[in-house]
Amino acid sequence: MHEVADVTDRLPVTVLAGFLGAGKTTLLNHVLMNREGLRVAVIVNDMSDVNIDANLIRDGGSNLSHAKETLVELSNGCICCTLRDDLLKEVRRLAKEARFDYLLIEGTGIAEPRPIAATFSFRDENGVSLSDFVKLDTMVTVADASSLLANYGSSDLLRDRGETRNRDER
Fold it and tell me: For residue 21, what are the β-bridge partners?
């Protein structure tokens, strides 16, 4: 039998989603600069080998205290598909450390919010779920207001824009 944390002891999680360039990292830096003493863990996902968003957070004035807080980089894949197991492992590890007040997760610009949210209720072969340790508190989708209507009304396919999860996707 696996341990299940009391609802009040579960680490609250906010997931930031949105297209590339919509402002997720800017919002994340703003939240981190205004966290009012909360001990925060951050997971940043990037499709490339070099996690640019993690570098922007590290250099963006968020002043993460390495003694009290942590920044986890999940690179070269998407947390809603190829890096899902890595996300499960890291969230579980951070929750079990029991030293954080909050967990913020920034998905890559092509991550789909629904599969990320589903990760929190998924039960593995041992019957263990992230919802045993954490609670998905908030899902935030950031939209670039200046291009929202043009993208919404477009009939372009994401593959035609080069914005698919898998370059070979047809």
Answer: none
Dihedral angle, C-alpha 103, 87, 22, 49, nearest 10 ° = 120
Q: Give the integer Cα–Cα distance in Å for 38 and 57.
A: 17
Q: Which residues pair with 14 in a beta bridge?
A: 104, 138
The secondary structure of the chain as a DSSP string is ------GGGSEEEEEEE--TTSSHHHHHHHHHHT-TT--EEEEEEESSSS-HHHHHHHHTT----TTT-EEEEEESS-TTTTTHHHHHHHHHHHHHHT--SEEEEE--TT--HHHHHHHTT-B-TTS-BGGGTEEEEEEEE---HHHHHHHHT----HHHHT--SSTT--
Per-residue model confidence as pLDDT tens digits over 27-44: 888 888 888 888 888 888
Tens of pLDDT, residue by residue over 10-33, are 999 999 988 888 888 888 888 888
Distance CA 29, CA 58 (A): 9
Supply the pTM of this predicted model: 0.71
73 CB neighbour count, 10 Å cutoff: 18
**Partners of residue 129 on adjacent β-strands:** 123
